[in-house]
Amino acid sequence: MDTPASQSAAFIPPLQDFVEMRISAREFQTRFLELLNKQQGSVDPRVRDPLHFLFCEVDNFAYRNLQDPNSPNGIDEHTFRTSAREALSTLLGLQQGRSRSEE
Fold first, then answer.
1. I need a surface site. Which of 1, 27, 31, 53 has the fewest CB within 10 A?
2. Which residues of 69-100 are buried (b: 16+ CB within 10 A; e: fewer)?
């Protein structure tokens, strides 16, 4: 069975690129969704939870920017990057062998 560290490893580079503003929000959305679609089998809850949270944020950002840029229901790019930073922190913690509850 894959470890949380190995399950989260593929998500870290695009998260880092997005958080550090090396790629656009649209590019991150594309890469993130492609990675999610490649996931096979069950995922450890310590990985699944931050990825699910981030998936919801991708959806919120896409709604605002594709449907109605003035909608109060979506999130702006700054909030999106902040959410990505939180998910990245959690996944990096898994790489180092600790969970968010241990921090």
1. 1
2. eeeeebbeeeebbebbebbbebbebbeeeeee
The answer to whether 25 touches 62, Cβ cutoff 8 Å, is no
Q: Quote the pTM value.
A: 0.83
Residues 6-30 have a mean pLDDT of: 94
Q: Is residue 13 within a helix (H) or strand (E), and if so which, with residue range?
A: helix 12-19
Helix (H, G, I), strand (E, B), or coil: what is residue 96? Answer: coil
Closest-CA residue to 65 (of 29, 16, 31): 29
Q: Give the dihedral of Cα atoms 29, 6, 1, 50; nearest 10 deg.
A: -50
Q: Which two tokens stand for residue 41?
A: 């089998």
